[in-house]
Amino acid sequence: MVTPPTIAVAFESPAMLADAVALAAELALPLVTEQSLVPAIYWLFLTGERLELRKRGAGAPGPVYVDFTAGVADYRRRFGGGRQQPLARAAGLKGVAAPAVVDPTAGLGHDAFVLACLGCQVRLIERSPVIAALLRDGLQRAAQDPDIGKMVIERLSLHHGNGQDYLQGLDESQWPDVIYLDPMYPHRRKAALASKEMRLLRALAGDDCDAPELLAVALTRARRRVVVKRPRLAPVLSGPAPDAQIITPNTRFDLYLRHP
After folding, report:
1. Sheet with 42-46: strands ordered across
2. Whose C-alpha in 5, 79, 90, 245 is 20 to 30 A from the C-alpha of 14?
3. Distance in angstroms (rounded) separating the CA atoms of residues 136 and 166
């Protein structure tokens, strides 16, 4: 079990005090003020633009935040290859089909956002309260964007909770067409921890050691397929063998097709 890092809520200006107090209370985290300097390793930091996760100390990487309006997310939306890209093919997007998708391992929402841009209704489930707060902030800001705001509001929704519990609580009428799993793989090689997002996500959430159990539940709730995203050379999750695979240079999608 990974020991949770010490996290505190901090803020940029006195005008943000009320929001910072509310966020700290919601997440049961200490609040950093001039009168209370919490010796935290990480700060969940409110700026005038967004919510950021910052690691403190010399040599710390830059902040991690969710932004669907610029950077990689915007590039993937505009130039990612549309429905011909591997992610879209893995989810079974053909013609004008727009399946309902549940992503019980939402993380920072990168792939869920792409699927939403391609027409899917996506429900994001994230069990880490801090990651869920970052994701919520990104969705709220994206909802105000003139280019993608309407799409974000209509196609993306967030639930903070355990993925297994969420899926098990669905009535049959609520079962999605596709369940998309991207569990944290327990890498041990240094190269696997290259990105700052991956390092901080692992520090916050740890490895998804219950991924096989989540897959087992997903197979009972998906109407059409379950997709499991893995590093290309990683073993498949324990359980039934996938029916098909889509392989890219760095990533593999294991497909479990549901048969009526």
Report:
1. 7-11, 42-46, 51-55
2. 5
3. 18
